Amino acid sequence: MQRIDSYPTRTYKGFKLREGRCLPFGATLVPGGVNFSVFSRYAASCELLLYNRGADDPYAVIPFPEEFRIGSVFSMIVFDLDLEDVEYGYRVDGPFDPSTGHRFDKTKVLLDPYAKAISGRNIWGAPIDPGRQFAYRGKIICDDFDWDGDKPLEIPLEDLVIYELNVRSYTKHISSRVRYAGTYAGLLDKVDYMKELGINCVELLPIFEFDEFQNSNISSSGQPLFNCWGYSTVGFFAPKAGYAATGKYNMQVDEFKNMVKTFHKNGIEVILDVVFNHTAEGNEHGPYISFKGLDNCTYYLLTPDGHYYNFSGCGNTFNCNNSVVRDMILECLRYWVAEYHIDGFRFDLASILARDQDGTPMKNPPLLETLAHDPILSKTKLIAEAWDAGGLYQVGSFPNWGRWAEWNGKFRDDIRRFLKGDCMPLELVVDRLNGSPDMYKSRSANVSINFITAHDGYTLNDMVSYQEKHNEENGESNKDGCNDNSSWNCGAEGYTDDPGILALRERQRKNAIAMLIMAKGIPMLLAGDEFGNTQFGNNNAYCQDNDTYWLNWESLRTNIGLFKCFKGLIAFRKAHPILRNPSFLNPKTDLDFPEFSVHQQTPWRMDSTSSSLNLALLYAESKKHYSIQEDCFIYFIMNMHWETHGFHMPVLPEGFKWWMRLNTNQPESFLNRAEMLGNQEEIIMGPRSIVILEGVKGTPSDYGYIVTEGVEE
Amino acid sequence: MQITTADRDNVTIAMLEGHLDFASSQRASEELTKLVESSDKLIIDMSGCQYVSSSGLRVLLLVGKRVKQLDDRAVLCSLTDDVKEIMEMTGFGSIFKCFDDVDTALGYINSAASA
Questions:
Q1: What is the pLDDT of residues B58-95, one digit of tens each?
Q2: List of chain B residues whose C-beta atoms are within 8 Å of the C-beta of residue A245
Q3: Which runs of E-coded beta strand occur in A166-322?
Q4: Residues with Cβ < 8 Å from B81, sequence gap 6 or more?
Q5: pLDDT tens for each residue of B31-40
Q6: What is the DSSP letter of A98?
Q7: CB proximity list for A85: less than 8 A, separation 6 or greater
Q8: Which residue in B has a C-alpha nearest to residue A147's C-alpha?
Q9: Quick one: closest CA in B to A146, which residue?
Q10: pTM, 2 dp
Q11: How far is B104 from chain A (nearest CA, A)?
Q12: Smallest CA–CA separation between A193 and chain B, in Å?
């Protein structure tokens, strides 16, 4: 049956029009045409501009008639458009009075905040067309997709092993040997590799449309620098076209959805790193892209005299707890879950989302509460980077309603210090390895997203190879990037051929990953750490769209032992549910041991307030409780001291024997087939090394290795 | 977009020429669906089709689904490199069985029919 409102009611310069529908905002397909709807509280008038694809000038400028406005929403249906050719934008007139926050400029063409696809930066790094004054234009998409029964995977949080990667840098290097390097499609050629490694969740650095040209710096060697991290959103509803191999055909939406569908088919979730704390428009000196010209007062946090608050450190602060902005963020996240089947979000500088419209932190921020209780997002992972650049630090106290997990920055800091042998209270290390009950006791270890390295900072290799950051090529005189890295170069800065130092670095990398994977909470790895990827000491590689930031897959061949260690440990974690149990309860098991206990060189004796560098954790994994085949004890021994120490093992029940599973002091660290210890009472731990023992009655399970192409020795 | 047909070895060969895009998608969808339903065996020769847009992919998808309901008796052949890449990158490549040229497609479709 044909709708009675599917015909035009007037024409304007040959264009057939009809009053539109206020909701949804954005450009939406309706029978015979497109419904354009845009909000601006303070605008006096609004025009719709239509362009042929790539044209410099619009082929139509259609004012929204006053009778097409309801409240603060301009909406209009335009019939008979070529959906694949048309690009659109708005021009808005209103007061220009910066002291009261208004910055309307009717000469600026603005991007629709709800644009589902954006043209203008379709090919990464392609020179900007100087004739194109309005860089970013909305595109209309077919939002249908053949999902073939797919939906978000809903893997329990405790079972995740997260793998943080940048779409472009992961496969852009020639050594990646993928067909479509640096793109969404390119990632798919690495799915088998990721499965081989054992991760089951990729966390993608920002993929919302952003401007890679935003960084105007030149490197010290004279090279132009790009923004390749993407923490500067242009459009929240549109995937970055320049990351799509099909971007030149405007098919980034289909390519992205196919990527998600393929990941899901292979049991891998997709989490997006989202940036709602600021936009690419900067402060009063930044460009007009969208929000600034549509309704500056609504979208940004402004000082009483109309300047931009800068809690993000990037020039402006998105007004997240304004009800209109809040609705937009909610709708955006719902859209990515419902239309793209995204499994979770990691919120960049999420503490900004907890600030009110004056910038004051709130106890119960409405946006965070709304997201926590939303029906569409109810199974979606919500992860906060629980701090901001304005000094708000909420790790351990982020408003959560039982739903929000946190990037645990304290895990990174404390474990790094322990790893390099700093004098620190041992109880801090125990807490970090036990899911941080000092911070999350009233909840569970699932709140704690544990990591030692992430995109921001050193890679794992560089953390054990550099004492000082080396960001000279960023063009900021090495002043950018964090100065406090808790890193240690093991005796030489950067490159060395000293075999002793190289062996120590290798051990330290393995020690680090062992602590990360064995810790309660959710491990997050930085992609490339598993094969020792280096950024040559650059700890802020956001602008290094080159060999510094692109993963060099040749390292996989030279560091296969490290890869095997990562893989083995991940498999070990998967095989032992006790390591993933998020509960902080520590019952005495039917094995007559507590599930979790803390030891040092002498078992059952522990001074947690000491600053020792020797620690051992015992897990008693009962087959009855965990529905596994055999009872098992796991003894996780850490000697972070620079000298050798003997550790006595706890006495096992009758018939049980200790078997070696991991020894970072050996080149072949993770043993696919465990070896029974000759000495069942004491083990000599080499300097700065970690051992994992399994105590079982029979023989511990083998871990099968399936070596895929590219992972061969 | 032009669609012309020819018969060879009891197989209908439909040749697409031009761009399969929004402007041509509705007509192409109708004509291809008719051909799928009226032909015992069909080869869609894409050698003259230089571009397939998002709408065009959807035409192929819908026609492909109809083909699957009708015992897989239609295939694609002679995709240009650009079109092949587009289909691969967007995941639409698995809709149809694709062959390098008409002869290979004919060999397949006739052997499949006799199997």
A1: 999 999 988 888 877 899 999 999 999 999 999 998 88
A2: 85, 89
A3: 201-204, 208-210, 233-239, 269-274
A4: none
A5: 999 999 999 8
A6: G
A7: A52, A53, B22
A8: B91
A9: B61
A10: 0.96
A11: 25
A12: 19
